[in-house]
Design the sequence.
């Protein structure tokens, strides 16, 4: 005999969701963080394509700007083109970095 489980649809507002998150215990919160991180990376993966212009770096420090050259499972190879020499960009001087999706930000230009 097969039992059917009924999935209940719950609509939460953002405030309700944040209130629920604040009330979570540590093990449950760890699971939620893992799920949210995987979801974020999955969404980024759909927008990050070869040839896309991206940036990465420290939040309040130096930012690198480049173009995605290759997409791997969890990281991208980025061809960085902001190598400076006394304020001028060296033409043809590029560096490649292997960057996790979580560090990449899609640029509008």
Sequence:
């Amino acid at each position: 005999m097969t039992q059917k489980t009924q999935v209940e649809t719950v609509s939460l507002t953002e405030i309700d969701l944040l209130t629920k998150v604040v009330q979570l215990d540590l093990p449950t919160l760890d699971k939620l963080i893992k799920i949210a991180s995987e979801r974020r990376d999955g969404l980024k993966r759909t927008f990050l394509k070869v040839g896309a212009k991206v940036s990465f770096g420290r939040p309040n420090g130096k930012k690198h700007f480049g173009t995605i050259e290759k997409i791997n499972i969890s990281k991208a190879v980025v061809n960085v083109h902001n190598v400076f020499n006394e304020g001028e960009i060296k033409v043809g001087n590029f560096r490649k970095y292997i960057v996790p999706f979580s560090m990449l930000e899609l640029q509008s230009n």
Remarks:
- The longest strand covers residues 63-71.
- DSSP finds two helices and seven strands in the chain.
- The beta strands are 53-57, 63-71, 75-80, 84-85, 88-89, 95-100, 105-106.
